[in-house]
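Rotation project, supervised by the postdoc (A.L.). Task for the rotation student: set up a whole-complex structure prediction and record inputs and outputs verbatim in this book. Inputs entered:
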Amino acid sequence: MPKFDWIHKVLVLGSGAIKIGEAAEFDYSGSQCIKALHEEGIETILINPNIATIQTDPRLSGKVYLLPVTPEFVEKVIIKERPDGILLGFGGQTALNCGIELAKTGILDKYNVKVLGTSIAAIENTGDRERFRQSMIEADVPPLESRSATSVELAVQIAEEIGYPVIVRVAYTLGGRGSGVAYNVDELKETVTKGIAQSRIGQVLIEEYVGHWKEIEYEVMRDYADNCLTICNMENFDPMGVHTGDSIVVAPSQTMTNREYHKIRQVSINAIRHLGIIGECNIQWALNTQSEECRIIEVNSRMSRSSALASKVTGYPLAYIATKLTLGYLLPELINKVTDVTTACFEPALDYITIKIPRWDLQKFKNADRHVGPQMRSVGEVMAIGRCFEEALQKAVRMLDIGKIGLVCNPEDSEFESEEHIRNELANPTDERLYKLSKALRMGLSVSEIYRLSGIDPFFLNKIKNILNMEDKLRKLDLSDSQAVEIIREAKRIGFSDEQIAVCQCTDEATIRKFRKNAKILPSVKQIDTLAAEYPAKTNYLYMTYGGDEDDIELSTDTSKVIVLGAGVFRIGSSVEFDWCGVNTIWALKKNGIKEAIMINYNPETVSTDYDVSDKLYFEELTIERIMDIYDKENPLGIITSVGGQIPNNLSMKLTELGANILGTSAQDVDLAEDRSKFSALLDKLGISQPSWSKLVSIEDAKISAEKIGYPVIVRPSYVLSGSAMRVAYDAVSLENFLNLAAKVSHDHPVVISKFITGAKEVEVDGVSDGDNVLIGAITEHVENAGVHSGDATMTIPPQALKVEVQKNIEDCTERIVKALKIRGPYNIQYLVKDDVVHVIECNLRASRSMPFVSKTRGVNLIEQATLVMLGKKINIQLSPMTAVPHVGVKVPQFSFMRLSGADPVLGVEMLSTGEVACIGENFSDAFSKALQAAEVHIPPKDGAILISIGGDQENKKRVVPIAQAFQEMNFRIYATANTANVLNDSGVNTTILYKVKDAQVNPNILDYLREQKIDLVINIPVANHQTNYSDILTDGYIIRRQAVEFNVPVITNLQLAAALVDVLKKNNPNEQSICSLNEYMDKIPWKHW
Amino acid sequence: MSDKSKKAVLFFKDGTSFIGKGFGATGKTSGEVVFSTSMVGYTESLTDPSYKGQILTFTYPMIGNYGVPKNELNLGIPLYFESDNIQVQGLVVHELCFEPFHWASTRTLDKWLSDEGVPGIYGIDTRRLTKKLRTHGAMLGMLQVFNSTEEPDFETLLKDCSNIVDPHQTDLVRAVSVKQPCRYNVNGKLSVVLIDCGTKFSIIRSLLKRGISVIRVPYDTSADEILSYNPDGVIVSNGPGDPKRNTKTIEAVRVLAEKIPLMGICLGAQILALAFGADTYKLKFGHRSQNQPALDLTSTRCYITIQNHSYAINTETLNQTPLEPWYINPNDKTTEGVRHKTKPVFAVQWHPEASPGPHDTEILFDKFKKAMEAK
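Outputs recorded:
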């Protein structure tokens, strides 16, 4: 059956900003989807406000709308574009939920837009727990004992029937949001109350708890002719009870027998046949550890995080094939893209093992709970490939970039922890459980005891024990011993890095590298070919291992090769924007005649780790050792380290020292900019203003300098991204604490303290230089005053409140700094502007987070220019940032505080947002209002209610008066806490007092108003110098903010942002927002540099 | 735990050697070295009689993870094993698991091979080996596990290697077929004669599960004797080696296929084709995996199947027979299933009984049952 002939134009919904539970995997699957549509000559329309994604590149998609993925906006695009069909399965739960609304409200029928692939009814059968359960019973697939409840009373009754413990699940939420285990009636009541409030349909599910069963996943495909495949199965290292997004996952399954594997495979197929899925879905299972009994947990009727992972695990392009199936193709009609000869209707056979480990950033959040459980909290993940478990595990630990050099041999391994503490950690796992397992084994806890406490299969625990045993062996080893070569060989086989061995041998990495090279202990290059070598494959998808002795590929001697280092693991501060940079670099290399553009990266969520993107993909560690292994084999022209964010950037000096050729700005010049102290000295030499600064020599000196500079001061470590350990100190005590913290993060790099200028504007410049010509892509202005991390700031291009002279001054400073640093590549400089005076605060000689925002808004692909420069060519365009484009772009951060129980949503110098969106409009408020909605902020209705609570003294509280007045003029009801209310009432704003949360008995109370959805917006501005004080954990401000988050009420903690919102509310009529594609905006730009 | 210091060598006629560590039994074995890309199911595979005469390599690098279960019976036949013994001559893996964990496990893979006197080698680059076999085709090889005090002598190995007998030139089927007829009865109206060329227990189970009693007879039983059991149908089982050597079976099938519903599985399919005058040939390296697609030429359906065959039916030679191609493998276009144009007679090259492998095509047994009921 060929494709349906009525499909000419298809609308694809994206997933919006990166948030916990929805990350770059949807850029990957969405990009594949669009590619698959294009191949068929189908016109594509994409709606996705995530400007940093690859899929929103107009070169890839037909038309791109940077708009919120909400029914209101999608309808407007449908009216404008009139597509034949819509794809809902490639934009996560965001797209799926939006699609259900569009169908329910009759919009799809009205404009005759057909849902391609899995039908709405089937989607609902998987989303509504009760319907799902019934459907599974009909299909003879065993579901969990469970029932849904819409009230607390009913929930209690059901739980009593099933028996505690039970798990409370919330219908239609992402990443298991709001779910939790209840061991007794009190816990049940608490979780259910919140869950019902958060559920889109006010429903929770009370379910039999199968904690400590094995958790298994299958990726299943089905076409219109009922052909079914399971592409991959995966086994969670963590037992049931830990959300699969927060679980360490192994693929393929390791501990399942043939009977178990194929039994679950078969019931998975039965399940999707009964549901009527067309395309791809992910099924989660619980498997008993004492029998072959299993339970179906969940079906995700769309591409998911797991399906992206499965694609990378197997090399099978799930999203691409799924797209073809939704168009009417059948599986046997499609070709396996890896072999190019065999059919896509097969199930991949692997001859390697992969391990995924999530990455958490919980330590960044004040008050956040670090336990892992039914709610997903991780912000990124890594995948490692090896020929044995130990090898893959140790690689994965290094990939996490959390300062560990492997599972063992880390300094903190020997830090004392009591047995009681460890036992508790095993039974109540946190993000650090993997390391606690080795500690427990070191302490002498038996494998069976650890199994009893943690539920982690002894198969895995024994493997960890192997690693510990090897560490002991290595520590005792004498390298001159005759056994040494064999022991080192075995150590390498089970994933020990040269650095780990060096630690055991009390020597340096270079010595070990030399030793093993002499002994011919070298890694081999192996292919991921989907068929375990059964058929010859032309695949360029590669990994390295010590579990083999032959390279699968012949390495060409052609020198037209360039290695690009990818961004590695995503974390707060480093996300899809760096993947955009990496992929664009690869494209630009190809455009400039490089024969082999080679990518090294290991993040399974990304487009850059799609083997289709580069000429060769090494799915490998970004460590000096591994990069040099590849460099030695490939012998390329050079390496690009400046487009993947901080991980590759930090490696460039070491790589240079080892003789690798770094393309672009020299490592010495990078050091000059990254080293705070050297950079500050350079600025002094150039006579460019900067906040008064001082290099830390000792804590005592620092205190003296701080007194001299005057508090508050900002503590900045070197070589860090997203403000890790960057803090504002308001007094000597906090200064000392922060200095200690900074010293820990910054290792052997210096720490600088500088004056924290309050009330200043922050401005950024992104550009490229070839040493002679300085190209400035844009001057970007922050809405919030300095003090909010640039990653958390709302940004606008062009600046809205910056005088022309100031912009000229910034242009001039930029040119001087860039030339002084001899930049040959991308750069980003951050400025403060106070009283029209420009101060430099930071310079990065690498692509920055705002690169895609600047490039797409200004219609100039900066990465393309940067690549040109790094290949030794000259910039071929001229553009002044002062030349305006006929539109305004606004970038807004996306936060995931809801997923992080306890986390305080207050902004500061350390970045907390998980993603961002950007919308373009005719003016600031047009773009800003769209961007806010795209970041899931509900803009309050015109006659809404607002709660204001401002910290500090009367003077401070008065700053909110104009904002409150503006709200009053717009007929808002205004509530405030007592002291704030007094100030407002005195200034003529009619304000009602709401009592604080701690006065729970006094009415009217804030908590009740939040819970009853009587408040549409909270403006809560804490006093700056209280942010750092740990005694304020339970202050009212925190409780108000946190409760607002829990009940999904927008919270604004910044005065400038509140003012900008007022502006939007005043000017904006939602029906008048412009609906234009990025293509249309770009067409109106007078230059063509895209 | 096994003595991990035993050396082992896998050696080929062309002088290629793979040096690793030994497990299982100490000693020497030879056979045709083949590979399977199955990721699970080593207990089922190792006991599959079709592997008789072969040294089996698993491409999945970690084998033995869930141990070896006890011999539990279900419907009177073993649940986890496909025959009473390990059938392979030797086993080749990349990494062997010495500390398996599974509720059903009673011993390690190492112990099992030791108990049954089968040598194994681990710690070699099985991907390199697989690529060699893929390029050169399945090859004769020798596997030796040495005592901990012994050192391999490559000259002797090379000499021994030149004397390896091709197992396909021997009576492999006779070695694995049942010696006397035996019965597996269940409550039900139907009964089937299973011509045992090296049957897997799961074929028997697939029939018993459907209420069909089974009379299992030696591979060389005559058509008359088979018909004397008055069965409702006949199944020709899987088995090892060159199908053309089984002249008596071919002769019997020629008669039976005209008279009674008949289903062939794997070797049984090749025998059926030969019985009607079609030809068979040896594949370069065979199909051995659980992920082989089989495309139904009469519909739009494609099934995932477990296959284990070295030989295939020559498609063109079907032209002169009443058989027609039914399924093909879309990858190399080989014929995977044939059926009679007019009679309830069909055969497939794969294993609808699964074990190991997917259950997609168990429906073929239902189809066969219906054919018998319609008779």
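Student's summary: The radius of gyration of chain A is 28 Å.
Supervisor addendum: The longest strand of chain A covers residues 774-785.
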